[in-house]
Write a structure and sequence with these properties.
This protein is of the alpha+beta class. About 25% of the residues lie in helices and about 40% in strands. It has one domain (about 1-189). The protein has three helices and 13 strands. The longest helix has 19 residues, at about 170-189.
Length: about 190
């Protein structure tokens, strides 16, 4: 399942260059889902075998817009001790200039990324309510986003889950939460 998370970005260098760390290792983050919150940590080494060769930089996860950059030609992704570093050369377009200026002014300061966890690449500890990611297969895209403070799973999964969650009555929600935890425990056993 494709998932999305957030991080920070800044304007850098000459021209329309943006850089940031869309993925930060070993940094606990609270993830909010319709069924509750949990802590997530992406471990150093999780990207060691990840596909990073066809990743796009877009605005706000909107694939209907022209990408702002793409690896390997106009965006470079490098794994550093702190996390995944992104450096992107934006095109000289009206939209790219507006995004660059908003980042330079501090109006946009967040990044988000969409990714796929590899099989067996995450564990869940119900005692600490923590998901630990140790293997990411693919980073699909990194996005400049206006609201970076709210980490979330993928739009597709989140909208479907939210719809189902809203239809459930309170006792059904409690039962669903128990089932989700049972599934996560079985998967990690």
């Amino acid at each position: 399942m494709k998932e999305i998370r957030v991080a920070e970005i800044r304007a850098a260098g000459e021209g329309l260059v943006l850089e940031g760390y869309p993925i930060v290792f070993d940094s606990p983050t609270v993830i909010s889902e319709p069924f509750g919150q949990y802590i997530e940590v992406i471990r150093r080494g999780a990207l060691d075998a990840a596909a990073l060769d066809d990743t796009r930089l877009i605005y706000n996860h909107d694939f209907s817009r022209v990408p702002l950059a793409r690896t390997p030609k106009t965006m470079r992704l490098t794994i550093e001790p702190v996390g995944l570093k992104m450096v992107a050369q934006l095109p000289d377009t009206e939209e790219a200039r507006a995004i660059y200026q908003a980042v330079a002014r501090g109006d946009l300061s967040g990044m988000s990324f969409a990714f796929k966890v590899g099989e067996g690449g995450s564990t869940f500890d119900p005692a600490t309510n923590t998901r630990t990611i140790t293997k990411i297969d693919k980073v699909y895209e990194v996005s400049v986003v206006p609201f970076p403070a709210y980490p979330q799973t993928s739009v597709e999964a989140r909208s479907a889950m939210t719809e189902i969650w809203e239809r459930l009555r309170s006792p059904e929600r409690a039962q669903a939460r128990i089932k989700i935890n049972q599934i996560l425990l079985r998967r990690n056993a």
